[in-house]
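**Entry details**
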Amino acid sequence: VEVMPAPSTIQLAFARLKKPWHDARISSCHGPDAGEWPGDDAAPGPTPAHGLYKLVRAVASHPLVATFTSPHNSPDRIARALLAAGYGDDAHESVRLSVVACLCHADEAVFVNLSLTDASRRRFPDPNVVIIERIARAGDECAPTRYPPDLVSSIPHSARVFGFDDLDYVQRTPEKGLITKLEARAVSLARLGLRADSIVWDVGAGSGSVGLEASRIAHLGHVWAIEKNSSDAANARVNARRMRASNYSLFEGKAPAGLDAWPAPDAVFIGGSGGELGELIALVLGRLKPRGRLVMNFVTLENLALATRTLQQLGATWDVTMLSAARSQPILDMHRLAAQNPVWIVSAQAAGRPSDRAGGNTHE
């Protein structure tokens, strides 16, 4: 038997562009009409059920992506989806889209290195293949643009996976700001024990800092978030677009309403309970996957007491860490340490499920 390979459609498309194809991630949105990608104000935003989800996630993970299209899920729709997801030309990278249409036909057409804005306004002949390139600006190792001044400037993927400064997030700022501070955020994310493919719940999302950083760690998974305050939810949506968090869905409402429709989680973070803490803990412990973790942050003794009492009654395995951090501040020509409010970080696993934590003091 003699095998006589023929060049694939993807290989031919790259040949027309005079570019190598071996490093490309190949995707497809050839299927039913997916509809437009949700915009900034659309709740809950993107979910894994959307027909363009796998493509947008591929672009998030790979600088070179080739995709098959369909008459509905067309190059212009793909360009609009990427724009809605926060991509485009900015200080950190340039995103270019090329279209190779009607390959090997007399009316073959090639459109090279279009901006997303340009491609979003055009119509292209069918059938076609789309090639998307993310091109980093030379020497891009700069820190994210902070809030303010530019609310929609993207946080570059080359910056870091998590541990962003508090001022990198759009947030309401009475007193010290309604956001999980960097120190508590880092410890909480560590206690969640996230994997690349984790399904995460963020209950009481606030400005989105914990859930959005979780979405970067669990880049093959998805974060489902809920926030009852409209202003905070709007800020979280802006932050999601800035971070290009296409694996992050934000629902506006009061938990536990709606949580029964979410997929079973590997990890749950509760940053705010809206007075439903006991009910939330019981619901979460009943839905967690094996070895799943619940992490909660508290700043009041009353909520800490309620949480530990509820966990004890439910037979959960739990422990508490008190985090008391201080940051240096200038004073004249010297520096002092300014204390932050103490935060209690409660980590729990459901009764009868194996615990990942060896040693240490836990309660059952």
User: Anything to note?
Assistant: The chain has two domains: 9-136, 166-349. The two ends are 65 Å apart (CA to CA). Residues 230-242 form the longest helix (13 residues). Residues 166-349 form a domain with the Rossmann fold fold (CATH 3.40.50.150).
